[in-house]
Give the backbone structure.
Amino acid sequence: MKLWAGRFSKEADKKTNDFNSSIATDSRMFEEDINGSIAHATMLAAQGIISKEDGAAICEGLEQIKRDIISGELLIDPNAEDIHTFVEATLTQRIGQAGKRLHTGRSRNDQVAVDVRLTLRKECDALYALVKGLIASLQGKADEYKGAIMPGYTHLQRAQPITFATHLGAYVEMLTRDLGRLEDAKKRMNVSPLGSGALAGTTYPIDRAMTAELLGFDGYMKNTLDGVSDRDFCIELASALSIIMVHLSRLSEEIVLWCSWEFKFVELDDAFSTGSSIMPQKKNPDITELVRGKSGRVFGDLITLLTVMKGLPLAYNKDMQEDKDAIFDAFDTVKICVDTLIPMIDTMRVIPENMRKAAAGGFINATDCADYLVSKGLPFRDAYKATGEIVALCIKSGETLESLPLEKYKEVCDLFDSGVYEAIKLENCVKRRGM
Ligand code: ARG
């Protein structure tokens, strides 16, 4: 039986019912839905809108439903329209008349908005902890290989020497900003829409501050139309999640490169790599490639949310039911990516010799050579040009800046003396940069 049975003379068409239903997605909010209802019923009783006895019966009934769903005793009906309908119908089935009073002064429009906010608050906390874990893994790896020198790149061309710790440290910074974005979005999300009703509030003497407090919100949304229409928090979170995926995808891309024979800076543990069905020699960094690929899903979820919302007149429209699929998928995807990356990073073997070897080619200390001439009094532009000539000379004669004899240096610029060799030592180059 539908909630709106009074106005309708027919049952819904089966396909239409399935199309309209969101139970497959919103079942995961059953605890939040029940908690929201308990807060609402508690407030209704405290305000004398329903009797104390009915309030108590509703709250007990809801607690029991929660326990039964968790234990598996009560199965959520896949044919129900949504979780709100299912919980309310089950309650009324179990406790009778009192159950029918639960929805007094409330609409599914403010109810669903509460549920999503509560669910995403939980998701935010879970993801926050995971991202912190990934930061710890990256920091741990950086500390483990503190002295390792590698080429830093621009345009994927060897540019200047850096330490591996600095390279991983960049990701620590990015992910730390991600934590800030999650916290920030959560703060704005954590206000209660309950009491907004369908759109225009309610005529009952409800206490919105009370339900907000019972549910751990920082306050309630003042404008009831906004209360039921707003999905900014989904969009903000999907943006924050998309940025996290940009970071994970860039890290993944680098690990893919580093695993290749062309680089061989790292080796992934066998437990976190895959082989080929035909090429016996292969060891593929599938995990990182999947993370890189899954970034597309999350960006897609963000675009879904933006597109769903952009043309909607106030207040609630059924289009908004699509919000949950998108934002839950985004959270699930980012969580599994972070969770999978953590042990992969923890067990990743770093090969500092290969990094050092790569850093020795490609004249990545040329800037330091020029800076050395500057320290001798030459203007930087002239020092740059002289060093360029020296690099050209090295390339022609198969030398490196380290191996080129001092006479050759002096032929290009007589300010060079034997101190240049200390100045261009990679260890000194990174030390001077405070790495
Ligand atoms: N299943 C709906 C959703 O997820 C709940 C709100 C329904 N409200 C309504 N007026 N049909 O958005």
